């Protein structure tokens, strides 16, 4: 029997004895299975690994179908839908990865030979030194020829004023794949080198040549084809996924709207913000643009930002306690701390951000260029920090992460930014409703961030739909929202750079609107107190909010349930 068949047979036998296990136990078992598959074949961009993961996904989908639906509790029914959605998403992601591998394949002629060596080691097959050396020796020289050919094709396209034959996003992804494959080659070599004397004699030199060639190849792909040299003025490189993939992602996140509908919602919310900003600006005796400019000048001196963050955190905590809005465990209040964001990191993180258990603070250092210092102080002024701090700490991400580590922890597998960022955005909107701002300047600062959340939906979805370029995204953030140019550039670089999912930026406002609608249904109606509501939401962990709604309203989803909650209708 082949190893894959034996492995999956053993999993199926184990599964048959646990069909009646509670969903949390099944989710834990699935996580262990998935981790074992990844750890058993840690070979990047490997068909063997992809095939095993796909088989595991199909096996678990079949297992879910065998569970006795009517015997499940509300929590178990919610978990059943969560696990099924996760498995379907894994299958879709696998298909996307295979498509991307096909796009990169011409740039990775060394992939399969190196992976064959790595796979043989993982299957406990002894390496033949002479044939291994011969295999490696044939891979280095063609890489130089490939680079020369790619460079010539790129120059010809540039001369004809045509788009490059290899999109920068594909080149950048191939550079990362090259680095990952090189690392698997290095692991293969370390396993044998020195322990098998004839291996070192045969393999060391061709291995070293190939390793250096792979490093040069990755550098060429990254710097020459993708123009990413690590400089602040590197061009912005992104990878629009298109309308179909956006719609599939929204279905996975249980958001029953089209991308176009969400852009309309964002524009509606943006118009409300502009109207409110005009009112605040009038109270300040200036125009909306003048109001944003005025509050940017209200920043603390160099070195003063940590003290400002502490003061704003204490202000938020006292406000929450005064209004009985949410339970704050003393330990959660005790353990948060501050860190400073290094200058290089501020290129992609120009504002405060949460990194458990610390709020990371952006402010200039003595090593930064003068213009960057001024931009960092203007972008992190007192009135912006008034709402940023509660967003990041308490009641925002710090309290949220504290609760998630202690409630329904198996659901961490189903993490969604629509809950994670939506929770923090919900508090921004609730603080506005409760008159947390103490002045028109505070209101203008709060509105800046609210407009920013609307803008994130507009620019990120339009980018992925192919109707907005990175430069147009930057212009929107600077002209319509009021960002500093450097801050807007950093934001867009992060939005499209691949480190966040394509829907992440839209999740802030949309998740906030979901929780706002649920708050209206359960708190404004008098069904729950504010504290009970927020405590109950935290206890569900970071799952799609429509399923949190099902839990809080005690309305279990049917087996054939599909997301249908139109939470943002006028």
Your description of this structure?
With 570 residues, the chain is mostly helical. It has three domains: 3-105; 108-225, no CATH class; 246-552, no CATH class. Helix content is 67%, strand content 2%. It contains 24 helices and three strands. It has a three-stranded mixed beta sheet with strand order 1-3-2, with helices on one face. Helix 11 crosses helix 12 (288-296). Residues 1-20 have low confidence and may be disordered.
Provide a concise account of the structure shown.
The chain is mainly alpha-helical and 570 residues long. The chain has helices at residues 3-16, 23-40, 47-65, 74-104, 111-122, 129-137, 140-159, 168-192, 197-225, 242-252, 259-284, 288-296, 305-323, 330-335, 370-379, 382-392, 397-404, 417-433, 440-465, 470-481, 485-496, 504-524, 530-539, 545-552, and strands spanning 337-340, 353-355, 358-361.
Number of domains: 3
Radius of gyration: 26 Å
Strand content: under 5%
Termini separation comes to: 60 Å
Largest sheet: number of strands, sense, barrel closure: 3 strands, mixed
Detail the poorly predicted runs.
Answer: 1-20
SSE diagram, text form:
Blueprint: H1 3-16, H2 23-40, H3 47-65, H4 74-104, H5 111-122, H6 129-137, H7 140-159, H8 168-192, H9 197-225, H10 242-252, H11 259-284, H12 288-296, H13 305-323, H14 330-335, E1 337-340, E2 353-355, E3 358-361, H15 370-379, H16 382-392, H17 397-404, H18 417-433, H19 440-465, H20 470-481, H21 485-496, H22 504-524, H23 530-539, H24 545-552
Helix pairs in contact: 1-3, 2-3, 3-4, 5-8, 6-9, 7-9, 8-9, 11-12, 11-19, 12-19, 13-16, 16-18, 16-19, 18-19, 18-22, 19-20, 19-22, 20-21
